Amino acid sequence: MAPEGHTATEVAHVLTESLPYIRKFSGKTIIVKYGGNAMESEHLKSSFAQDIVLMKLVGFNPVIVHGGGPQISKLLKRIGKESSFIYGMRVTDSETMDIVEMVLGGLVNKEIVNNINRHGGCAVGLTGKDGDFIHAKKLTITCKNPVLEAPEIIDIGHVGEVANVNKSIVETLIAGNFIPVIAPIGVGEDGQSYNINADLVAGKIAEVLNAEKLILLTDTIGVLDKQGHLLTGINASHAKEMMSNDTIHSGMLPKVACAVSAVQNGVKAAHIIDGRVKHAVLIELFTDSGIGTLVYN
């Protein structure tokens, strides 16, 4: 029986439209960065899990990298600890890092794994600390200070950037027909844990796995021009120009920057899509119209 509001012919058209994409991407690795409202709404959580399971069933190799900023802030508030941000990055002292690991590596990661498995998938959760997976280095922030001759260095604690990715553990999981679900926590040479921006982790993993696609779920419709119109496609050089003239700014900056880096380092295409739309991943992958912004080299 066709879904309510759709004729059987319409459903058949959608299915046949998806066939070329299934053929094209079968056996290919697709990295999906999962975050924002898509992680907080119950019906969007369910539709995302269904999308990932369907991708796996038709022969794709999905790899999930997730965030969890709002969930971290909620737990910090419950224990009476204020969240503090500098240039959009969470100041992360040792106590906060413990909470980050509890939320990202525990609560959030296992909920995503459970949702995928409940819908018929076979997901395995891990952090960058598992299997010597993500090597991190401390992120330093510098800013101009009119009082000082040299730029001021700001210490924001256990916030890191990706130094190196050991891809063997993810390749082993993919070969075993599992769906990896990755929390963006890395470990430094000193053994310290570091909280890393999930977009950047997703981009680096896409690069080292030579992924076919990188998909970044956001809370906006995609990349906008100066007039606020959606850009359905943009090449890397144009994206860099838009970042330099402040057309792309704020929270969209790290997403576009990691998309550009990915396509310039072997990833075939990156997609910045609206995670607030039900089945956004399937719409982008399996239909001619797609959704959001395609970034290409």
Report on the structure:
- The protein is 39% helix and 24% strand.
- It has 297 residues and is an alpha/beta fold.
- It has a single domain, classed as Acetylglutamate kinase-like (Carbamate kinase, 3-Layer(aba) Sandwich).
- The chain has an eight-stranded mixed sheet, with helices on both faces.
- Helix 2 crosses helix 4 and helix 6 (198-208) packs parallel to helix 8 (252-263).
- The mean pLDDT is 90.
**How large a portion of the residues is in β-strands, by DSSP E?**
15-25%
SSE string, helices as H and strands as E: HEHEHEEHEEEEEHEEEHEEHHEHE
Query: How far is the N terminus from the C terminus?
Result: 43 Å
Q: Give the biggest beta sheet.
A: 8 strands, mixed
Helical percent range?
Answer: 25-40%
Fourth CATH level, the homologous superfamily: Acetylglutamate kinase-like
